[in-house]
Design goal:
alpha+beta; single chain; 9-stranded antiparallel beta sheet; 12 helices; 27% strand; 17 strands; Lrp/AsnC family transcriptional regulator
Length: 344
């Protein structure tokens, strides 16, 4: 359970759908500067607000890989690998979990670069906890907890809206990807400030944002970090093919679900969860009672999760993505890189 002030929780909810600090201020009756300070305080408590994107618009496919642990992949910054974590099924066995944004049509090449077999690879739809719309979160007396009534609604098949179809996919250029990376780590970024920092024309940035980036932008995401060194838990949930997204969405309504990844057509959902011992019962209750959950398996404890933005720089050219940077990041001894990635 997380302890918050009432205003902090209201700011957190408003931040999901806001684009500027002034939007949060209007929703909560505060000033933009105060809203920014509250968000900074929330970050210290483990709540991180990041810009959300539909990467399909950028011709990138969300994928999930669970494979034998690779020190080089975990320790190095690899473009297109936007999330990595260590998963331990037992004290003697280690896996690596990767979320990779694969350029459309390049799955085989990416697996070859990572030296992995196709069976560890799944195309996924990703769901994260949304405090603005969550049906199973209760905030009472300064504490976040699971709402039993909301949990029952999820079990009974509460309203689920499948993600809207993506806008027409594009191959973004360096400026587009730079904007995506900057907004991912700061969704309330002012383009005028970025223009001054980068020495780029404000008109150029505005054009790229309106014409390309805006079409890919979703609501902001709230990322809940595990307290201290507490490990998370990775579950694989088995469901009839065609039901994966509904089950992943139901799991994402639990505030301690960091993310739920649905693998459409494969009958699997991967749920990264960070419940306290007293809270895990609600999670298991949902898994046991949900009519679309056929079974589930504990895949391991989750440690040392790291997140990164999309790469920009030398990763696009001649009308498509260039995967040379991915190969060089893993196998070149040179410290020079022709791409930029932010760790967030």
């Amino acid at each position: 359970m997380k302890r918050l002030r009432t205003l902090e929780y209201e700011v957190l909810k408003a931040a999901v759908v806001a684009r500027r600090y002034v939007d949060i201020a209007r929703s909560t009756g505060t000033s933009p500067s105060y809203a920014a300070r509250v968000l900074a305080r929330l970050e210290e408590k483990g709540f991180r607000v990041r810009g959300g994107f539909d990467y399909r618009v950028l011709s990138l496919q969300e994928t999930f890989i669970l494979a034998p642990y690779s020190p080089s992949v975990y320790e190095k910054v690899v473009p297109f690998v936007v999330e990595k974590a260590i998963v331990e099924p037992s004290k003697k066995r280690r896996l690596i979990a990767l979320r990779v944004l694969v350029p459309v049509g390049a799955a085989e090449e990416v697996l070859d670069i990572l030296q992995l077999e196709p069976e560890v690879f799944s195309e996924v739809e990703r769901f994260t906890w949304n405090p603005y719309a969550s049906r199973a979160t209760r905030f009472e007396a300064g504490l976040l907890s699971v709402d039993p009534e909301g949990l029952s609604e999820l079990v009974e098949g509460g309203a689920f809206h499948r993600p809207s179809p993506a806008a027409q996919p594009i191959i973004p250029d360096e400026v587009d990807l730079m904007l995506v990376a900057e907004i991912t780590r700061n969704p309330f970024l002012k383009l005028s400030k970025l223009s001054a920092e980068r020495g780029l024309s404000g008109q150029v940035l505005s054009y790229h944002y309106v014409k390309h980036v805006k079409n890919a932008r979703l609501d902001n995401e709230v990322r809940l970090e595990a307290p201290g060194e507490t490990p998370g838990k990775l579950f694989e949930v088995y469901t009839p093919p065609g039901s994966e997204e509904r089950v992943a969405w139901a799991l994402s309504n639990l505030y301690y679900t960091r993310e739920a990844l649905a693998a459409p057509g494969r009958g699997s959902v991967y749920a990264f969860t960070y419940p306290q011992p007293s809270e895990e019962g609600a999670l298991l209750d949902l898994l046991r009672r949900h009519p679309l959950v056929e079974d589930y398996a504990f895949r391991g404890y989750v440690y040392a999760a790291r997140e990164y933005t999309v790469p920009f720089g030398g990763v696009v050219g001649e009308g498509g993505y260039v995967l040379d940077a991915m190969y060089e990041a893993l196998y070149s001894r040179s410290r020079k890189t022709n791409f930029i990635v932010y760790e967030i």
